[in-house]
Design a protein that fits this description.
Chain lengths: 255, 247
Amino acid sequence: MGGVHHFIDAQGESRRLLVALDGRVKLLLLLAALIVNLIAGGIRVPLALAVLAFILVLAAGVRARVFLKRMAVPGVLAVVAFLSQIFWYKQGEVLNLPIWQWEVVIYSGGLLRGLELAARILGGMGVLLFFSLTTPLPELMRAARFFHCPPVLVELSLIMYRYIFLLLEEGGRIRSAQKSRLGFADLRSTLRSSGILGGMLILRTYDRAERSFDAMRCRGYRGALTAVTPGELQKRDWGGLVVGLLLLGILFGLR
Amino acid sequence: MKKRFSVLLFLVLAAPHPALAMHIAEGLLPLEVAVFWGALTLPFLAFGIYSITRKKKESPNYMPLLGIFGAAVFVFSCLPIPIPGVGATAHPAGTGFSAIMIGPFPTVVVAFISLLLQGMFLAHGGLTTLGANTFSMGVMGAFAGFFAFKFSRLFRFNLFWSGFMAGMFANFFTYLGTSFALASGLHGTEPFLSEVAALFALLAPYTVALALLEGAITGGILVYVNKNRPDILRKMRILPPREVETK
């Protein structure tokens, strides 16, 4: 998981145009794209959004393999959602096939709705991935603060984000140590090892929180995190916003 | 008598991926359904934020503790646990344990942030489905776990079994919530409640096994902490001082 952390921050530091666009612009475009994805209907717009996200991710300098790998889970869910609708959306029977004591019935309405649902999942997840692969969390949080998101939520998100990767590495190390001592060998030892692992994480977390608070106070923490406030939008941000909204408008018109 | 092939097929497809059922993916819920779940979650989230703000004023070190603790719960919920007899792994919800340690309302906020981070940065869940996911994990899981722990303590269960009940009920109710949320997006022309039942039946083999496992692990963690650092349980007011183990 440490790799993910490095990856996201590394992308944020590179100054390609799509990555360098202001977080507020990207957040607005993300919300607009997700709404278009949900309300457009049919499969053309969501699939176009998925393809567009893929192209933009490549343009932002992310490897195709990374994007496709992360789309694997949504891809499986899209297939499951598609299959569920084939049988649960009963409009216009197209096939009735008896197999032993079962009866396979496929409906045309279900097929269409299933495709629509699968496309919506792919479109939505594609857009989300584009956003996540080109926007570091601190930038998102600055944008969230600008849009009057409660400061407690922003502060908590930043602290959690900072420590998730550290604790994942720590948890991984404890787990490896346990495995080398025959932990996680069978169900009984797995339960015991998991309990100890969770307990050790809590102990270390608690101590770390106290140390962290002391360190934060030494650096001037008085109950609120201070961060660089986002400045004025630049010309390229306005341009990105207008082009993005236009593109979404055209896609919505083509539905 | 002919059985419903659809349920069987869905079950077979979902079998290797029980953990995926935990978070509803972006795009799965229509806009009006997503708004409905968001509106249902909002009061809990708002009260959670209010409660954290109040506690932060009382004790300035509350935020780092909550943040790092939230991160630990996130990490805990990423631990793969093998499900016996299935050959697959699933992930604990972690909300029951979190509700015991930091309370149910802050757990809603922590779950919301965890789901936001998972949705936006790990492609698990989504943004328009955040309300539905937070309701199942954060609200249903946290409150079920919290009350299960409190009632168990009331009935004088020991620490392990109280933790066990909290972990088990939190997990079970999380899946119940997920079934409702999934059915609201997938039910098609079938009656809503029959699809809830079908989805819950689909998830049941994993839910029961995973709930028992999560219960055992939650109980184990509490016992471990009580044995090694009882002061943490005392400071976080989980146990009264007389019940805390002395080293």
